[in-house]
Design a protein that fits this description.
Largest sheet: 4 strands, parallel
CATH class of the largest domain: Alpha Beta
Number of domains: 2
Strand order of the largest sheet: 4-3-5-6
Helix content: 40-55%
Strand content: 5-15%
Amino acid sequence: MAYDVAALEKLIEQFQKIPSIGRKTAQRMAFHVLDLTDEQAQEFANAIIDAHTKIHHCALCHNLTENELCPVCESVNRDHATVCVVEEPRDVLAMERMREFNGVYHVLHGVISPMNGIGPEQLTIKNLIERVSDGNIAEVIMATNPTIEGDTTAMYISKLIKPFGVKVTRLAYGIPVGADIEYADDVTLMRALSGRSEL
């Protein structure tokens, strides 16, 4: 006899829609929600609804914000002449976590991927070119992921920006700190070698 509670199954299915969440993890999350008090469950539901209705894209960099501009774009203490181009808003969080970058960002919301039907027009590339054309940007740092799509997107954007006389750089990729060279693959070693810096 099958054990099936419709509301529970629906909750599990919703959690399963989250990327990288499998059935067992979705079940654990669903049972956790069921263990919440009514007040805690309402807070959880309200947090989802608030995030969905209040958060939108920054008018300038397309990062997530509740205001017209995100806190980074609003800050007078940031270097607005240096723009770091990233694929997704979560990449901004990663960059901010290291507390070393003082410039601003531009979020593409994806990468060029013809196999998935994503071309330049589906991304915020046009908005980036408009920012560059204003003449206030000195350097654009391409911080897309080191994938074929990420590299293709970086090269495509670089070609569009070069005519404006703006410096375009790419994040160096290579061997992680604490890793052994013998375990690195050929592509990683090649990138580490080409991205070497003077001591």
